[in-house]
């Protein structure tokens, strides 16, 4: 057997690359050791650098070239021969370095900078790979659009619906919703902590005191608070923007899959749907995952036949980045993996494209992956707590004397009743919205199930299969397999699939009716489809719009609870601790450090006050204020008698109920 003449050069090349990686590892170790003032680590880094730099015989005077120089020359040659693969490998190395640095340098900007750089390098690799693909200049595309009057009208209508969706989601965020859930406020409080800087939060870990959720999205909340104000409206604006962004995404997906009528139906019903509206009017930690699912699906639909590597890089980055958000974002892993499998089976893509998605997702999620690997108990996080087959969940659902498999049928019945009711005529039982009203209007419910039947009969088609699999997997993972179903915030990442199925029905209904009416004159079928579709859409909008808006902005306001923490926080929000000593008489119903109070009154930092006898007015020149809940009004009256002449204010909610009184001591 003849020796392979290329084996030795390849081995030498591999050794040189390994040595370069060793030098990078030595640099990382040196940086970490220097930050920790660890002399032993610095010595180990120096030793690793020497071992990587020199090889056997390199200390000899006969060495023809400097090893590191030759290694760098090899890297340069590799860049010239295969720049896309080299950049992709470099992106992975940078992601690993950022993850390694994020462990010891939790609060440093260095790991975050390297992490962002790794994703930028990966995108550059994809652009380099795709540069040989045929392209159309953006200017030429815009000119073509400008010449198509029908397309211009379509774009204008979609833009108008999207602007209406944005207005409905960012208007008067102070008063609607009329309450602030503790989870929303707790998450927002972490954004405030980042802005204040006195109690910082590491970006690439999970919160040990808050469901072990990833902490990076708190930096998104901090950006929202910095841009739009440090209050409840400020933290909700970005949620409104991402919620409104889902409308044109829904339209484009339906438009590409089935047609214009499907797109307009999905966009209109989602724009006014009160459940969709509510969850895009509360804190940003919930809704972006939904927009990411839609973006992922749109990317696949637009580019699935073009074999563009950028398609799969962007898909992987979306999946990876989404894992830093709310737990429902894990649906992207399931849905993305399923779409890739289907496309491989349909021979639209190859296995290597799925590996590119895996690479991109790994680069984006590398710091979090390493954190989970080092702290596996945190991986389940909130998911472990709400999983229906956990022992606490089973006791809560079936009672303390439950037995499986004896009670399995009962459990299935309870879960199906909850989730099925949510998709028919029941409300949201999760606590972040209301169970008082059906989650969806009659038009949405009817067309959802009719669209589901159509999708089942056409399940071999990519669009129908995708919508149906998203719907089933989303409501299985976020509903049937969770405690206290239905809980709207866990189902929010699956909710857009409802509107996809609604759009599917509208498209087929318009097409079918047009075919029936123009059976003798097929030339008029296209025009008839447009007219019938417009009639169906106008009728649906005429019913759904007033029903949903009245449900959310009128009826929900009358039943929203609890509003007391929000009103307490607002009363104390203008006050600064340097000028005021603030007390809350809320126990046993509410304590001063409850999340909405803590978040809104972050400058005041109020304290609990149990009785009038416990009051200690400020003696350091500051003023004193007491806020009391209704059950503690008698104690507040004692304070007024003891310190007469102060300023009292009564605080009512939107229903006219007297809930609070505040008293500023003289």
Notable traits:
4 domains, globular, about 675 residues, five-stranded mixed beta sheet, mainly alpha, 28 helices
Question: Can you give a write-up of this model?
Answer:
The chain has 666 residues and is mainly alpha-helical. The chain has four domains: 1-81; 83-133; 143-559, no CATH class; 564-664. The protein is 64% helix and 4% strand. It contains 28 helices and five strands. It has helices spanning 7-35, 39-53, 67-81, 83-102, 109-130, 138-147, 149-170, 182-196, 217-228, 232-257, 260-272, 274-279, 288-303, 309-322, 331-345, 351-374, 377-380, 382-386, 391-398, 408-422, 442-457, 462-480, 488-491, 495-517, 525-559, 564-572, 595-600, 633-642; strands spanning 580-585, 607-608, 623-629, 647-652, 658-664. The radius of gyration is 30 Å and the shape is globular. It starts with 6 loop residues before the first helix and ends with a strand. The relative contact order is 0.08. Residues 56-63 have low confidence and may be disordered.
How would you summarize the topology of this molecule?
Blueprint: H1 7-35, H2 39-53, H3 67-81, H4 83-102, H5 109-130, H6 138-147, H7 149-170, H8 182-196, H9 217-228, H10 232-257, H11 260-272, H12 274-279, H13 288-303, H14 309-322, H15 331-345, H16 351-374, H17 377-380, H18 382-386, H19 391-398, H20 408-422, H21 442-457, H22 462-480, H23 488-491, H24 495-517, H25 525-559, H26 564-572, E1 580-585, H27 595-600, E2 607-608, E3 623-629, H28 633-642, E4 647-652, E5 658-664
Parallel strand pairs: 1-2, 1-3
Antiparallel strand pairs: 3-5, 4-5
Helix pairs in contact: 1-2, 1-3, 1-4, 3-4, 4-5, 4-16, 5-14, 5-16, 7-10, 7-11, 8-9, 9-10, 10-11, 10-13, 10-24, 11-24, 11-25, 13-14, 13-15, 14-16, 15-22, 21-22, 21-24, 22-24, 24-25
